[in-house]
Amino acid sequence: MKTILIVGANSGVGKGIVQKLSNLDYQLILTGTKFIETENHSSYILNLKDDENIKSFVNQLDKIDGVVLTAGIIEQIPLKFISREALYNLFDINFFGPLLVLKELSKQKKLNQGASIVAISSIAGNKFGSIGNTIYASTKAAFDGAIKCLALELTKQKVRINSIQPGMLDTEMWKAENTTIDSETLNKDALRYPLGYGKPKDVANLVAFLLSEESTYINGSAIVLDGGFSVAY
Amino acid sequence: MSKLEKFRELFDDTAPESILPETNFREIEEWGSLLSFSFIAMAKDDFGIQLTGEEIIKSTTVQDLLDLL
Known about the structure:
The structure holds two protein chains of two kinds. Chain A is α/β, with parallel strands linked by helices. Chain A has helices spanning 12-22, 51-59, 84-107, 123-126, 134-154, 183-190, 200-211, 229-232, and strands spanning 2-7, 26-32, 42-45, 64-69, 111-120, 160-166, 222-225.
């Protein structure tokens, strides 16, 4: 049975990915900021801001066949309010931490030949601008840039890496109590999407494909998953 | 600096003296998502308060916003 590591398994998208992959023939290793109760998989708390935690976590793993990087945070911070602290906060979780997980997996030779890595990016990275999202968009663009280089570096290990660029997704991140964007604005925004906002299961289905033997020729790609939004605007 | 003065500082193209506690902030031409996010960011940075978009949408006047701080 193949083993897949999911970094950020307790996020809205992460939960959808866990649900999908649980129904397939995979052994899952789940990480999150909180311990995830699970009967069938292993679960770890992983602090993406802590290099030693990342190193020791990877050290205790056996070899794995796939990685899904779905940890991420978003905060609308206009230019006048950008600080080094805010930059590090978002970059640590969205880019530095996940990249250092990949570094340790590679350095400690934990990736089996044929492994597939899937990072959840965003159309915010290099497709669309939006007010207040300078830092968030930069973190996503950074990862998409890194993936192109990593695809070349990991080829010798027969490891593939790709990213998914979703548009807006209907997750708890956008519930009224969690966001600085009001529901009226979100409802109007959803109308701009030909198929409405995506669901975690839409991302999970593409993740499953990119982890599978059906996608072994896809490498170094950033795949847009936005229900047609980017062709409408 | 008072809360009202801090609020006025968020604007670039609006005369400070035209922004009064009783002003309907949505009627200020410059008001929009950037100002809304800026107000929320100011609340967090200067007052340690995390506001949501829903709290902004329930407000009408400048004073309503200042009362959130």
